[in-house]
Amino acid sequence: MNLNFRFAIASDLHIALPETIWDHPSRFHLVEVSIPALEVVLEDLENSQLDFLLIPGDLTQHGEPSNHIWLANRLSKLPFPVYVIPGNHDVPSLLPNEQSIGFTDFPSYYQSFGYQNNTELYYTYQLLPGVQLISLNSNIFDGKGQQLGRIDEAQLTWLESVLASIDADLIIVMVHHNLLEHLPGQSHHSLGKRYMLENAPEVLKLLHQAGVKLVFTGHLHVQDVAYQNGLYDITTGSLVSYPHPYRILEVQTDSQGVTWLEMISKRVETLPEFPTLSQMSRDWIGDRSLPFTLKLLTETAVPLSDKKAYQIALELKYFWADVAGGDADFDFPNLPTKVREYFEKFGAIAPDGKLAFIDNHSTFLLEQKCV
């Protein structure tokens, strides 16, 4: 492995042209900023000497054709290649309807962004010599037409074959749903498991066998890095949710043959029409998080009266915003002991119980040659 390149991640853009915006009072997504925030990010990235940009899903608000068309046109003007995959919001319906494109229509909108003459919703592409991208589709529909987060059997077979045939120094995998847990007990919690692949263990087994080290995900709208047996699942927050983040990453091999991934994260903190965007969006989430926090409280197995749970939830108004920002250091001394211990686990706690601030700015070892 002898690699030197730079790339960026921007996730969950939720692009919404003004005439397509759903004005629902409880929505978490601040889609009004989707286009101006993206423009700020792209202006920065155009001056960052990138080799490519990855967007791991939820490109549009609700799969509207006009939003897909706008985004594909905007991305075509960039001086570097862009690679995308669908999120659940991009293909919310199996068949096209008056609001959204159909499930199988997605590749036709993004032929220049990974789907060259490809009718499947997954693909592989050589990004650079020695660097291979595998982009997976994690959206399927069951017999009742319900959308699920899963890699289907045909794609699993394809993935196994591709991993066996690739001759690359570094394989990068991109998929919308999370492969590893980014929240305590995420794969078992009713609120968290819908953001994970239902068959994550099957996919992870294939990736571990192939020595894959980097997976980039979205969907959860948080800044977090999870690690398991040499594999990093780096999930990136949404451009329409606090803290409106994106990442610039650089892979370098030094003179000793050691290959590193250096990651920095940036935020869109202000926009001309939203001069206090950062505080505004933090309040936006805080004002809408009460039902979510109450549900977390009711599943802590700590007996609480409805009144007490409500009081605690009010104290935790900014809890989810701080989780979304990554690298949180929680301290809730006034909460009941078991409740406090539960919520403090959502902070930047490493397996050894110590704080580890790796969610936004980090350097990860990818390869070290044996001497």
TrEMBL record:
One of its GO terms (molecular function) is hydrolase activity. It comes from the Bacteria. Gene3D superfamilies: 3.60.21.10. It holds the Pfam family Metallophos. Keywords: Hydrolase, Iron, Metal-binding. InterPro entries: Calcineurin-like_PHP, CNP_phosphodiesterase-III, Metallo-depent_PP-like, Pesterase_cyn. Residues 5-222 form the Calcineurin-like phosphoesterase domain. The keyword GTP-binding does not apply. Belongs to the cyclic nucleotide phosphodiesterase class-III family. This is Metallophosphoesterase. It comes from Merismopedia glauca CCAP 1448/3. The lineage of its organism: Bacteria, Bacillati, Cyanobacteriota, Cyanophyceae, Synechococcales.
